[in-house]
């Protein structure tokens, strides 16, 4: 399956989806919940592993761009971000190996419950993420970040949608970061999880390279714009977008589980 087999309308649709996914992912994470459904619609004949792998290729281009942009402008503490990213990579490799053998439909109810809890907690605590107030320091802080990175990495390798949002929420709700700094650290970890999944998917021949690179270029542009927008408008803006995106994800997954949205 390649670009020559797709209509012009399908290619435009996939490019626009890639751009939007990159923007959303850069601001609050969760671009996969935009990009994966688009790939399922645009590549109806592709195997599940091909869709997941192609999504990872497109996603890693956007997350790399946004992580660099965030780092240059926010300067997040790499003493936390790099260990978290390292174990997130390992977790994603483990998750991708699991994801090759389990039905993806089993995850949707779990994802939905998690997103409802995340959204409700954020709404009920309006001051959450407005400023950094770390709950631990030193080794305990690093260990908590690494555990978070590994668990989210496993999830990202196995399925993926909403990974960035879960990373942001864990950094805000568990570790005490402001939304903007949490987004910066989450991007670094998300690059690692995408690379971890590709470490499994690419050698297996699952990536649709033409589609992935085209969507990746659009994702890259969206990620660059999204990161600059988030940095310019600050944590309050990121929090608002976070709530909107989580709500949209909850609605989409609910309709899918009810059989209204396939």
From TrEMBL:
A Pfam family per the record: TauE
Keywords of this entry: Cell membrane, Membrane, Transmembrane, Transmembrane helix, Transport
CC terms in the record's Gene Ontology section: plasma membrane
UniProt keyword Protein biosynthesis, yes or no: no
Membrane-spanning parts: 81-100, 106-124, 161-180, 192-217, 237-261
Subcellular location field: Cell membrane
InterPro entries linked: TM_pro_TauE-like, TSUP
Domain of life: Bacteria
Membrane topology category: Multi-pass membrane protein
Stated family: Belongs to the 4-toluene sulfonate uptake permease (TSUP) (TC 2.A.102) family.
Protein name per Swiss-Prot or TrEMBL: Probable membrane transporter protein
């Amino acid at each position: 399956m390649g670009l020559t087999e797709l209509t012009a309308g399908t290619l435009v649709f996939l490019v626009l989806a890639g751009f939007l996914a990159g923007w959303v992912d850069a601001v609050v994470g969760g671009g996969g919940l935009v990009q994966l459904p688009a790939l399922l619609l645009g590549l109806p004949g592709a195997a599940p592993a091909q869709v997941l792998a192609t999504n990872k290729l497109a996603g890693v281009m956007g997350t790399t761009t946004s992580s660099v942009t965030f780092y240059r402008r926010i300067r997040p503490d790499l003493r936390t971000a790099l260990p978290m990213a390292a174990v997130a990579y390992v977790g994603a490799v483990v998750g991708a190996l699991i994801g090759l053998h389990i039905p993806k439909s089993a995850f949707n109810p779990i994802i939905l419950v998690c997103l409802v809890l995340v959204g409700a907690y954020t709404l009920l605590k309006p001051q959450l993420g407005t400023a950094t107030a770390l709950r631990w320091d030193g080794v305990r802080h690093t260990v908590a970040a690494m555990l978070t990175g590994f668990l989210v990495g496993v999830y990202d390798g196995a399925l993926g949608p909403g990974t960035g949002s879960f990373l942001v929420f864990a950094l805000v709700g568990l570790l005490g970061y402001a939304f903007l700094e949490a987004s910066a650290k989450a991007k670094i970890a998300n690059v690692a999880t995408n690379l971890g999944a590709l470490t499994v998917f690419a050698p297996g021949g699952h990536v649709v390279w033409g589609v992935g690179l085209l969507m990746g270029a659009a994702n890259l542009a969206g990620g660059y714009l999204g990161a600059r927008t988030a940095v310019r408008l600050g944590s309050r803006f990121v929090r608002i977008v976070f709530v909107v995106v989580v709500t949209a994800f909850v609605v989409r997954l609910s309709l899918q589980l009810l059989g209204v949205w396939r």
